[in-house]
Amino acid sequence: MARIRSVYSRFARLIIPTRASTQTWMGLTFLFFVGLAVVAVSLYITFVLQVQVQVALEQTMRQELSRIATQIESENERIDQLRVARQIAQLSDIRITIVVDGEVLLDARGNTAYTDSLLFEREEMQFPSSSQPRFAERDEEGGHLIFAAAQGLDKIIRIGISPPPLLILIHGMQITLVIATVIALVLAFIGSWISAQQVTRPLLAIRNSARSISEGDLDEEIIVVSRSAEFQDVAASLNQMSDAFKEKIDELERLALLQNEFIGNVSHEVRNPIFSIGGYLEALTSSTLSADQRRLYAEKGLSNLERLNNLFSDLIEIARLEFREDLIKTSVFDLRQLADDVYEYLFTKANKKKIDLIVENATVFVIADRSRIRQVLINLIDNAIAYADEGTVRCRFRRRLDKVRIEVVDTGRGIPEEHREKIFQRFHRVDPDRSRKSGGTGLGLSIVKQILHAHGESIHVESTLGRGTRFWFELPFAEAPDDPDAR
After folding, report:
1. What's the chain's Rg over C-alpha atoms?
2. How far apart are CA 108 and CA 85, in angstroms?
């Protein structure tokens, strides 16, 4: 098997080049498809049309044989039947043979009588078990004839006629069609080669200009001398792309500034807890502190250490989501069960703030990465709890066609309009003091956005000051799996 594959691969490389000019590919493509057409026409002529002609000819012969047999059988006397058969043979130029009880009573065409010693060995004279007419075609003394024979109760009647002019015309058309298809194949290849030249010339101009642009000459303008609208559009698009490159350079410079700003934010976010930890550790070295003060400073130091650890964990998580799409492992799971799990995880935090956490939904299955969606729900609900002083935080979902919409709704203070487009940016906080007191890193919503982006989905937010906020996203709906363990 391996040897056969190796031989096939070598043959494919010889017939189908891995790299060739457009002109060569167009020629091969035209040759392939026109060749298919030639093969299809040849097969049609050889098999379908030939069979159709044969069936039509046999039908015509059957009708002619039936007509002549009827005329002969219309006479009662044997001598009269032979007389009618001779008259038909003389007037219609049809060879008529009548055999009765193995004896040839008549075998004539026109005024010529025939003696065929091999008559009973002929193909059309063989009646194995069926009374259906038999047919044959061959060269005889009088030329090429088509025979049809039928066996009655006491006799065999055979007729032989020359091929009709229409049949000769059809055979001639078959040969003409074969020659015409071959000529069409040759002309198609020549035409494809010429047309390919009209394609490759502007392509070469575009390629050369594109190389100049890729080498940094962004002022190079692509000029294509062609009446083809597609090539004119390609040239215009590439010129627009060159202009876009210039804009991208400016954009990259802007992103570089944002990167520097991001690094500054990270440095700031890291520096503050480090300084705090250092201060508390330094204070703990004092011998004048009471046991309560030592406990307080140790707790604050641990709190800042935890905040620093959360910050680095979130930064690492964002980086992994940005550069490792394979971290998303989708499966079918029960969204209600996941929401109940998140409820148990965050219930204590909500209860401490006297916030009513509501997670009551029907069973529905989705296709996603369960652990990642759990992280999304935790971040959204935890964010809602952190920025709410009282009221409720509700997680609900419902099916919408082939999607399931998941919503996290709170009755908190809401998000000011100027912050709504920025809340998914890293380190952006609507209330920095409140976020730092709650231990937040300012990266929770950014992680939510990255996870949903990796799933091909988006996060949306609606908020009204003084009334609350609603975050929502969608996941693909899935039918309940047959395996209970998949839930």
Report:
1. 46
2. 9
* pTM confidence score: 0.42
Give the CA angle between residues 332, 394, 303 to the nearest 5°. 90
pLDDT at 300 over 80: no
What pLDDT, on the 0 to 100 scale, is given for residue 388? 80
Return d(Cα 407, Cα 480) in angstroms, integer.
Answer: 21
Q: What is the pLDDT of residues 40-64, one digit of tens each?
A: 777 776 667 777 777 888 888 888 8
Please, what sign has the CA dihedral across residues 180, 183, 189, 193? negative
User: Measured between alpha carbons, how far is 318 from 324 in angstroms, rounded to an integer?
Assistant: 10
The string of DSSP codes covering 338-366 is: HHHHHHHHHHHHHHHTT-EEE------EE
The Cα–Cα gap between 181 and 197 comes to: 24
Give the model confidence (pLDDT) of 406-427 as tens digits. Answer: 999 998 888 877 777 777 776 6
Q: 443 by DSSP, 3-state: which? A: coil
Q: How far apart are CA 423 and CA 444, in angstroms?
A: 10
Q: For domain 75-163, give the CATH number.
A: 3.30.450
More confident residue, 360 or 226: 360
Query: Rounded to an integer, what distance in angstroms lies between the CA atom of residue 311 and that of residue 427?
Result: 10
Structure tokens at 217: 């000459």
| CA separation for the pair 360, 340 (Å, rounded) | 8
Phi, psi of 105 (to 5 degrees): -90, -30
CA distance 354 to 348: 10
Residues 291 and 297: their CA atoms lie apart, in Å, by 10
Looking at residues 111-118, what average pLDDT do you find?
86
Query: How many CA atoms, within 13 angstroms, populate the side-chain half-sphere of residue 115?
Result: 0
Q: Which CATH architecture has domain 229-304?
A: Orthogonal Bundle (1.10)
Strand 143-151 relative to strand 134-140: parallel, antiparallel, unpaired? antiparallel
Strand partners of residue 408: 395, 471
- CA gap 189, 31 in Å, rounded: 6
Residues 297 and 281: their CA atoms lie apart, in Å, by: 8
Average pLDDT of the segment spanning 233-262: 69
Q: What is the three-class DSSP state of 285?
A: coil
| The token pair that represents 37 in the structure block | 């057409």
> What topology does CATH give the domain 324-486?
Heat Shock Protein 90 (3.30.565)
Interval 178-206 mean pLDDT = 75
The answer to whether 70 and 81 have CB atoms below 8 angstroms apart is no
Tokens of 433: 């003091």
pLDDT tens digits for 84-110?
A: 888 888 888 888 899 988 888 888 888
User: Structural domain boundaries of the chain?
Assistant: 21-71+167-216, 75-163, 229-304, 324-486
Q: At what angle do helices 370-386 and 444-454 cross, to 10 degrees?
A: 150
Interatomic CA distance for residues 88 and 93, integer angstroms: 8
